[in-house]
Amino acid sequence: MSGSLNITSATADPALLDLPWHLPLDAWPNENIAALPKGISRHLVRFAHLSGRVVAIKETTSEMAKREYEMLRTLQGLEIPCVEPLAVITNRSDVDGEPLNSVLVTRHLKFSLPYRALYSQTLRPDTATRLVDALAALLVRVHMVGLFWGDVSLSNTLFRRDAGAFAAYLVDAETGQLYTGGLSNGQRENDLEIARVNIAGELMDLEAGGRVADELDPINVSNGIVAAYRLLWKELTGSESFSSNERWRITERVERLNDLGFDIEELTIKTDETGTTVRIQPKVVDAGHHQRRLLRLTGLDAEENQARRLLNDLDSYRASYGGEDADEEMLAHEWLVRVFEPVVRAIPRDLKGKLEPAEVFHQLLDHRWFMAQNQGHDVPLAEAVTSYVQDVLRHRRDEATVIDPPTGSLTMPIPVVSGTSGEPDPAADPTSDDEDWRLKV
Ligand SMILES: Nc1ncnc2c1ncn2[C@@H]1O[C@H](COP(=O)(O)OP(=O)(O)OP(=O)(O)O)[C@@H](O)[C@H]1O
Ligand SMILES: [Mg+2]
């Protein structure tokens, strides 16, 4: 019956009530709908405007909607990158009192793209490999918290650009099963096999539609997820033995895990009876090592590789400007207002939807590095920004959905620094950069 609409939501947004719930989702008027790229799915999913943002609405049964809502909430609590659940709406009916499907409402993940919308013409093998690597990393994280995903595929994943790589987010949690005691090897292998078969199918599908490059072999790429997954799983969870005079290996292991973006909670170190062999077993807690450091220092929320890239730049700024006992947080703030924010502000308003600020900054550093290579000398930051905006950014397709206000909270003009590090390799040593940091006057 109309009027008995039932909304379950942790963060109730009253505007939810204004959406036309008495209409089947496929009959919603255009004014409510946000036209954005979407993956293929069995259920009807549409994007709608809600309080100045965009939400994804999936029509399904009330049991499934509730289950997926709870699952996504749990996964959020476990810090798994996934879409944010907003509400479950049941008891819908049309104006004649005929029942309508229940819906799950999730927040649209900004700047995310379904894999089919990530490239414009044909999918190249290296892009496909980066997608599969990102999915492998997500699957490892999902397994580490004890979730059997059950329907691992490119379609059930959203991708965001992450400094030359991709970051994967779980979008479809309908088939997930959480095991508090962790997963068995058999369960993990099962999920991995589902992933491999689904990816092969998805790529063959694209191939049949002429949407992959000739040199891309779907089987080869889909097998890649198995290799990438195993490598990462071993690095994160495997124990290691070495002789007791090779203790540097302990530090090396910790650094390797940090480089991969993970923090460890504890490291079990055991020696055998003779004391000649040491065995270490890390317990990895969280992904997002660099993300957290960047957030703590600057308040910027970026993807892991972007964060690493920005921190590299920040660290080289610190090396150039900070004295012996310079305060890390103070310098980070200085870097933010003198380097990062002026770059973000320099992006013309009509281009702000192209890429998110951290990705722009990363690309700008690359661009500047290539300019310097071509010209044989350092290029001031301001000049690189102008060239990047005109020659690169302007020619990109739009990726944004809802455009945030600029990152900068400061309104005063701040002098722009003319130099920042610029190696395109995020792992490059920032201290090897001998640029200076003069202020532009
Ligand atoms: N919060 C969101 N942000 C961005 N895109 C979303 C969101 N929720 C859903 N989508 C898009 O809608 C598509 C379909 O969603 P979903 O996979 O949940 O539907 P489904 O019908 O359960 O899929 P399946 O056919 O795998 O069962 C996704 O691939 C994604 O592109
Ligand atoms: Mg799906």
How do you describe this structure in short?
This protein folds into four domains: 6-108, Phosphorylase Kinase, domain 1 (2-Layer Sandwich); 113-237, Transferase(Phosphotransferase), domain 1 (Orthogonal Bundle); 240-287, no CATH class; 303-437, no CATH class. It has ten helices and twelve strands. The protein has helices at residues 62-77, 125-144, 185-208, 218-237, 248-259, 289-298, 304-321, 328-345, 357-375, 381-391; strands spanning 6-8, 45-50, 53-60, 85-90, 102-107, 147-148, 157-162, 165-170, 177-178, 240-243, 262-271, 277-287.
Q: CA-to-CA gap between the ends?
A: 69 Å
Beta-strand level of the residues, as a percent range?
Answer: 15-25%
- What are the bound molecules? adenosine-5'-triphosphate, magnesium ion
* Biggest β-sheet: strands ordered side by side in the sheet: 1-4-5-3-2
Instruction: Determine the number of helices (DSSP H or I, runs of at least 4 residues).
Output: 10
The H-and-E topology, N to C, reads as EEEHEEHEEEEHHEHEEHHHHH
Shape: globular
Name the poorly predicted regions.
400-441
Secondary structure class reads alpha+beta
Instruction: Calculate Rg over CA atoms.
Output: 24 Å
Please indicate the count of domains.
4
Q: What percent of residues adopt helix (DSSP H or I)?
A: 25-40%
State the major sheet: 5 strands, antiparallel
What value does the average pLDDT take? 86
Number of strands: 12
